[in-house]
Amino acid sequence: MTGVGPSRRGQEKVDPMMVFRHFMNDSPQPFMIGYWNGRIIDFNRAFQELLGYSRDELLTMLWISDLTPKEWRRVEDNAIQEHLKSRQAQHYEKEYFLKNGKKLPVEMLVHSLSDETGDPGYLYFFIYDISQRKKAEKSLVRGKINAQKQVAYLNTLLDNMNELFYTYDSEGKLTFANQKSIDLLGYKSEEVTAMTVWDFVAKRHRADMETEFVRRLKEKEPESYHATVLHKDGSERIFRLNVAPILEDGISMGEMVLAEDITEQRRTQKALKKSNEELQSIQEELTAVNEELTAANEQLIAAEEELRQQLDESEINKEALANAHQQLEVIFNFLPDPTFVVDATGRVEMWNRAMEELTGVKAREILGKGNREYAISFYGNRRPLLIDLALGYSDYDEEQYLFLKQDKGIFYGESICTQIGNREVYIAGKSAPLIDRNLLFYPSQYITGTL
Length: 451
Description:
By secondary structure, this protein is α+β, with helices and mostly antiparallel strands. Helix content is 41%, strand content 27%. The chain is built from 14 helices and 16 strands. The chain has a six-stranded antiparallel sheet with strand order 12-11-16-15-14-13. A five-stranded antiparallel sheet has the order 2-1-5-4-3, sandwiched between helices. Strand 14 and strand 15 form a beta hairpin. The radius of gyration is 33 Å and the shape is flat. Mean pLDDT is 84; it is low at 1-10 and 446-451.
């Protein structure tokens, strides 16, 4: 989510042009601000260099028509209209006319700045050069035909293997299974194409298998293990699996598996183990009483020794835990970015040196304090900060932020602080919950400040 709000209550709103000049002109990210009628208001150096025009030329051009080919104007207009309805930033693709006469494919992100009435007054655009991506897409199409021929040949070889071989994507959906796999599990080819690997796993093992699958996708390493596999008739078989990741540009797209049915081998091993256990039991029953007493005494001595070792290990672990906690506090205190942590009730638990330098508030003055005491250091009053959003509070005012969004549980925001230094300070920060091994909830806030 995004928002544009006043720098402080009761005062003028932040001039978007001032924000642009201070923070965007030297950015490598191409950026442009324009009116709804197509006239360009301003842009940064990266935008000018991307298109190749001079600054004077761009200021006399219309981004709607002079810079945009006719076939892309409706696409751009639809994206802007969708933004007006949802008030959310919109992504879309188009092309720009370059100074050299060529066309440049780009990806656009459009949003707007509100005027004094609260209505959208300006449009601002972030521009991303996607020309290399488009070239890669064309090359991919050319290579696809050759790849299809190679796949057909490879499938013929795999179907004639004596081992089971199959592949599946990152969601577990089967993408290929050779004839040996289909025959051994009792299915037909047309049935397998609509199944996932989880359909062959008993429910009692499914959660563990899915967890291991996610881990292997991240680690991208080959692995071997045994698994219980379901036959179509409901019976279970045991496979030895040799699994390897399917990688594309370093990204795990799924896995390939070479499997062997070891069901009968495992049954033989279990029967042999059971027989050995029975023989061992008979032998133990024939042991003399004096040997049993000796064994019992040795067990008692071993138990005492084990207890003593456990007590020693407990003391060592206790000391190691204390040292680790102390090291964590030292590392946190010397983080270069201003950072603080509160517990689930909103009390300040940690306040590093960078926070002391930014706010002028010492850690000893604020640690243990709640009731949004930390907000006074930034705004002079107890108002919600990003860290309160991570705590789950909803009493914040979106208009107090120049920028506000949530992504995967992390809150990002930008605002003007009135309490730091001798004048207004632009602050960008992010906040996220911290979960310990007991699943306790500790939001933290990470803040950077720039005059």
